[in-house]
Automatic annotation (TrEMBL):
Source species of the chain: Monosporascus ibericus
Species lineage: Eukaryota, Fungi, Dikarya, Ascomycota, Pezizomycotina
Pathway: Protein modification; protein glycosylation
The protein, known as: Alpha-1,3/1,6-mannosyltransferase ALG2
GO molecular function: GDP-Man:Man(1)GlcNAc(2)-PP-Dol alpha-1,3-mannosyltransferase activity; GDP-Man:Man(2)GlcNAc(2)-PP-Dol alpha-1,6-mannosyltransferase activity
Family: Belongs to the glycosyltransferase group 1 family.
Ranges of residues in domain Glycosyl transferase family: 230-399
Glycosyltransferase subfamily 4-like N-terminal domain: residues covered: 20-203
Amino acid sequence: MAKATNNGKTILFLHPDLGIGGAERLVVDAAVGLQNRGNRVVIFTSHCDPKHCFDEARDGTLEVRVRGNTPIPPSILGRFSILCAILRQLHLILQVYATSELRSLGPDAYFVDQLSAGLPLLRLLAPTSRIFFYCHFPDLLLVRGRARWWKRVYRLPFDALEQWSMAFADTIAVNSNFTRGVVASTWPSLAKRKELKTVYPCVATGKTNVNEQPGSTLDGGEGDGKPLWNGKRFLLSINRFERKKDVSLAIRAFAGLAPPQRRGVRLVLAGGYDPRVAENVAYHRELVALAASLGLSHRTAGTIVTALEAPDDVEVLFLLSVPGALKELLLKNAALLVYTPRNEHFGIVPLEAMLRGVPVLAADSGGPVETVRDGVTGWLRSPERPELWTEVMDLALNRLSEGELAHMSEAGVRRVREGFGETHMAERLDGIFDEMLATEGEGASSMLGMVLLTASALVGVFVAVFVALWYGWGNGNERVIWAEE
C-alpha cells in the first residue's frame, strides 16, 4: 500500500455502469489507489450489479453508491443508447445534488470518465470543485455504421457536445500516448486549450491480492487440488465479446496450426459477456459458428463448474463473464496470451499476463506497442496476417526451449513491476489532483454555455426520434465507449 498523503482529499467518481471491462478496471484501480494514499473516495454510478462487477466494488473495499438508475433505461427498444447514456448521467448528477449528498460530502474534486456531457452541469452545481476527466478514446471514432447520411446527421449534435463539454474539465487525461495523439488530431482546438496528460492504467503488482483466490486450482482454497484441465496446455484470449476486439483472429490463427501442432492444446476465449447487450450475444454466436466452420470442436461455459468440466477433446472453449478467481487461474497457467484488438487504446490484459510470466502475442498497433516489447516480453504482429499469429503460436507451444520461455517470463514480470504497478498510477493521479487544487478553477459555466448544452440535447432528441421513426433505423450501433479490455 502506498504511503498516504497528509492532506487527504475527498474525491467523487462518476461512472455510468460499474460492470466488468477495461474502463471499469481502471476506475476501480484509480479509486483504490487514491484511497490508499489517504483520500476519501466515493463512487457514484447509475448501475452496479453485484453479480457482474469487480470484487472491490462489492466487498466493501470501495464505497459505491448507485443512483440515477431510473427512470431512464440504458436504451429504448435497443435504440438511442448514446442519448440514454447522456440523460442517465445528467439524472445521476441531479439526483445526487438534489438529495444533498454533494453538499454533505463536500468534494474537493471529481473523477469523471467515458462520458463528458454532464461536465457543464457539474461545473455549474459545484463551481469550487475541480474536475478531472479521463478520456479513454473519442466516442465519435468508436461509432460504426456512419456511411449513411441520416446516421451521420443523427450523431452530429452528440459529436459536437462531446468536444464542447470536455473543455469544462480542469484536467483531461488519456490512457496512452497513442490515445493522446488521436485526441489531439481529432480535436486540435481542445488540445491547444487543455494539456493532455497520459496516465497509464495499472495492474496490482503486490505479492498477495485479497480479492483473488490463492493456489493453482479452484478447489475451495486448499491449493492442492487437481490441475486445471489435468494440466492441459492452452492459449488464452481475454476480451469482451465485441466485434471490434477481433476475437475471430485468434480462432483463425489457431485453426492454422497443423493437427500435430495443436494436439493436446486448447484455445480458451474468455471475457465479459452481458446478455443485455445484443452485440455480446450476436458476436458469441458468430464466433461459435466460425469455430464450427473451421472444423474445431467447441463448447461454451457460463459457470466455473461447467468450465472445469469441459471434455478433453474440446479445442475451443468459450467462457462467459469469467469471475476473478477463474481469470487468475487462467492467467497463471496459459502458455500464451493472444490479444487480438487492433489500435487498442491501451489494453490492460497484456500487462496482467506479463505480470504472471505469460508471454503476449498482440497486434502491432495502439497501446500494446507501448507495453509489449517485441521479442522480449512477447510478440507484435499485424492483425491483417493471421498466418504470422499461427507461427507465433507454434513457436510458443512447440519450438522455444524452457530456458527461452523462462527468460521471456522474467522480462515480462520486470517490465510490469518497473513501469505499470498500482503505485505508479496512484502517485501520478494524486499529484495531478494536488496540482488542480493548487490552481484557480474556471468557475461556473456561463448562461450561454448552459443554453448551448440544452440546445444540443434538444437537437439530439429531435434528430434521434426523427431518424428512428422516418427511416426505421436504430440497431444499437450508436454507443458510448465502454473502454478496453
